[in-house]
Amino acid sequence: MKFVEEYRDPELGKKLLKRIHQRSRKHIKLMEFCGGHTMAIFKHGLRQLLPANIEMLSGPGCPVCVTAGADIDKAIALGRIPNVIITSFGDMVRVPGSFSSLQQAKAEGADVRIVYSTQDALAIARDDPTKAVVFIGIGFETTAPTVAASILQAEQESFKNYYVLSLHKTCPPIMKAILDLGEVKIDGIICPGHVSAIIGSRPYQFIADDYHIACAVSGFEPVDILLAVDRLAEQIESGQPRVEIAYRRGVKEEGNQPALRLMDSVFEVGEANWRGIGTVPGSGLNIKEKYAKFNAEKKFDIKTTPAREPKGCICGAVLRGVSTPNDCKLFRKTCTPEHPVGPCMVSSEGSCATYYQYGEGNGR
Amino acid sequence: MEDKILLAHGSGGKLMHDLIQSFLPDLANPILEKMEDSAVFNVSGKLAFTTDSYVVNPIFFPGGDIGRLAVCGTVNDLAMSGAKPLYLSLSFIIEEGLPIADLKKILTSIKKAAAEADVKIVTGDTKVVNKGSADKLFVNTAGVGSVPEGVNISASNAKVGDKVILSGNIGDHGVAVLSQREGLKFDTPVPSDCAPLHKLVADMLAAASNIHCMRDPTRGGLATTLNDFAEKSNVGIRIEEDKIPVAKAVLAACELLGLDPLYIANEGKLVAVVPAKYTDAVLFAMKKNKYGRNAVIIGEVTAEHSQRVVMKTTLGASRIVDMPVGELLPRIC
């Protein structure tokens, strides 16, 4: 496949590693924001190959993991309303809320269906006008445009039974929140690849300007990630933090304008509830009043009891980069991919699932 | 004759009789034609006996269909014990409304696969269930085969120093089937690898009768098979990523869907654990067979990291290859 093999080329990878080893002198901490990056780093064993002075931290970039328990409770409550069909991306159905999961609700009789895209959800709504179809909108700027498009399509085709529970989140505000928390000292950030394909690289400029932290947008192949680490090491060693794109084939400075316009037309910025972090202003995407008739929160009277976090679970600290899964007492014991306690063990891109699946490398 | 299967086709009456009579020429052999309640035949020596049910969705896919799969799958399960497959049973559970033309097509495919696999279908059954009680067609086959003297293949036989041989590209079947799934359709030039492997196994055993372990990595893929060997034999297995052959199109589809070829099902591949000194002979024999042309050594059995499979990545790092958990789901972002 074009654009896979080239970016897995071992020779190129080894050259980059050599350059990183030569270049990097300071002890630095780099955070990969995106869960896809965490998974790729482990899958290709990159942590073991980087010099000992480069420490990699995983950030809050797994959309399933950061969905607050209270929001999952809402989705479950929606599923228990008669004649409602819940449509959702696969991983989401397994994430535990406060008392249950969508998967469990399904076993108890709720109509929960896994879809691959919003088009599938619209098709279900079209097929059965007597049922209300609710799509659980999760994900960052990557998935939000397609969900926006589905709402516009529902408007155009005069759907009366399609709704979205928007739990969408945006990246730059949560990066700012993590930096403002100041719990971990970060020298550089590997910025998400797919999100940046939509929003471009400019929204990260404040990180370099205001926080003096190096930024590099990366793709998901080993060579992409090594190139991003190399760029970060160079910026840090030279004391000149800036925003670089190390993923030119996917990302432009200005992003994907049509997709951004699509998002803007349907969503407005609001606050979002993040698992382990709490409410972060400006980090959520709410459905605009103009499209309120497609907003599941407006349409249905969703009743939930106060949310609670699973006892002993440290997913929140893992998501903030403060702890690693190895610090968790439940990890590999009561919390496994078969019986996940917290969300980071559910998604294949969650830190805990990645640590579990691919081992711990050389322990770093 | 009706063009769709009706509940009455399963009732035991005339319609069923006619339907079965229309099957027979496809599968004809003297034992089956007697149409007794059970097939009666002579066998001698050590026997292998296995059964499997096939529920693949969709029932037709690039490179095969549920019929070919039902024959090859059971033949391969027998072959993986070193057995020469002899006789199969064949049962259909048909959802009311299945086009008879589809059933006919599947029977033709079963006939072809059985001929290629040198097995006779000697007994069978047909049931028809209400619409919605099954998904088009479920097939069960059971099979018996004779195990040659001196052959003792088991997942618990791997020894430190043995080599791990894979018969060819992985992931073809799973990707071919996924490509046809509703809501996920995409074009792939790679057909399913669904094939009977008993001749390949016979060739391998002729080259070295003391093959230690052998499996066809179906559901769960290569990763699951290797983990099973490591666990049951209480050894470690170390494989090398750049030795494992994957078709470009399969790799591309996996990238697109967020799947790992190591966990994807195969229906015409085998993985064998062979004492090091017989590796060359086995590999040579495999490469001469059309189903083993791309056979390659992918790793070895180690004393370290017992019960774990570890892979050396193309960049030279190591990572654990664990058992898969739950259904493989495409990623969302």
Query: What's the β-strand tally of chain B?
Result: 13
Oligomer: heterodimer
What order do the helices and strands of chain B follow? HHEEEHEHEEEHHEHEHEHEEE
Span between termini of chain A: 33 Å
* SSE string of chain A: HEHHEHHEHEHEHEHEHHEHEHEEHHH
Q: How much β-strand is present in the residues of chain B?
A: 15-25%
- Main β sheet profile of chain A: 5 strands, parallel
Task: Report the structural category of chain A.
Answer: alpha/beta
Radius of gyration over C-alpha positions of chain B, nearest whole angstrom: 21 Å
Largest sheet of chain B: 7 strands, mixed
Structure annotation, total helices of chain B: 9
- The neighbouring-strand order within the major sheet of chain A is 2-1-7-8-9
Under CATH, the topology of the largest domain in chain A can be stated as: Rossmann fold
CATH architecture of the largest domain in chain B: Alpha-Beta Complex
As for the number of domains of chain B, it is 2
Q: Tally the structural domains of chain A.
A: 2
Helix content of chain A: 25-40%
Mean pLDDT of chain B: 91
CATH superfamily of the largest domain in chain B: PurM-like C-terminal domain
Strand order of the largest sheet of chain B: 8-10-7-11-9-12-13
